[in-house]
Write a structure and sequence with these properties.
28% helix; 6 strands; alpha/beta; six-stranded parallel β-sheet
């Protein structure tokens, strides 16, 4: 059923090197309840921290922020949240500063000083929202990182020191991409529910196994009917086992007598 926008969260996502948030997009869509979220995924094919916006949409990051807010109209929603992974973690915070979001979630955020800034003759914005002068305007930010990853831990603590980000380490994790491991372990839904403040849908109950049905015309031991027939491969090996004496032959019915 359709859910009014004022009951949902608008989630604007910024990806890393690949056009996904460390997970197949289908997994993310299946994990986030559709009745609670509208999701927009932003991808930068130039791998340049969205400094030049994104292809066929905006030429600069400030233009991208203005167009996103004009197209999405976040004021319609109950909450407006930015999320970013890896290279998209810092652009998510920049979007939060310029776009007026309610909260930012940065997962394994990469260093803000990317190598493309050193290219000779490459135009870039002179002003970066991630500066000390904007620290007081940063929205509430949550920095998520693998506790045993030194690089990601350093960036997370830098965000905590300069922008007041709350730190959310993932214990005993060392991967730059902790979400895939949590997906495999079955804990991804609980983590996203914690980060984005929702109650995950309960897992569907496993169906009960079918019980054997008794043949009404047979007394005593129940006979299973309706089960799957053995495959030709299984039937072949059963016949071979009987021929070489590894299995007892099924009892045959006695010949019918005309006298009875």
């Amino acid at each position: 059923p359709s859910v009014p926008d004022d009951r949902k969260t608008l989630l604007v996502a910024f990806t890393g090197l690949k056009p996904r948030l460390m997970l197949p997009n289908l997994v993310l869509l299946q994990t986030l309840p559709a009745r609670l979220f509208d999701l927009v995924i932003c991808y930068d094919p130039g791998h340049d921290h969205f400094v030049a916006g994104t292809v066929d949409y905006a030429d600069t990051f400030p233009d991208m922020v203005r167009r996103l807010n004009a197209d999405l109209r976040p004021e319609r929603y109950r909450r407006h949240v930015a999320i970013g992974t890896s290279m998209g973690g810092l652009p998510a915070i920049r979007y939060g500063v310029l776009g007026g979001v309610d909260e930012v979630v940065a997962i394994s955020a990469a260093t803000p000083w990317h190598i493309n800034r050193l290219k000779v003759g490459r135009p870039t914005e002179a002003f970066d929202p991630l500066c000390a002068c904007m620290a007081g305007r940063a929205p509430p930010t949550l920095a998520v990182y693998s506790a045993l990853n030194r690089t990601d831990s350093k960036v997370a603590h830098w965000l905590g020191e300069h922008f007041g980000a709350r730190l959310r380490p993932i214990p005993e994790a060392a991967e730059h991409n902790p979400l895939s491991a949590m997906w495999r372990d079955g804990t991804l839904a609980d983590l996203l529910a914690e980060l984005l403040h929702f109650t995950p849908d309960p897992a569907p109950a496993a169906p009960e196994p079918a019980r054997p049905r008794a043949n009404p015309g047979q007394k005593g031991k129940a006979k299973v009917v309706g089960g799957p027939a053995p495959s030709p491969f299984v039937r072949f090996w059963r016949r071979l086992a009987r021929r070489i004496g590894l299995a007892a032959k099924p009892a045959r019915k006695p010949p019918r007598s005309d006298a009875t």
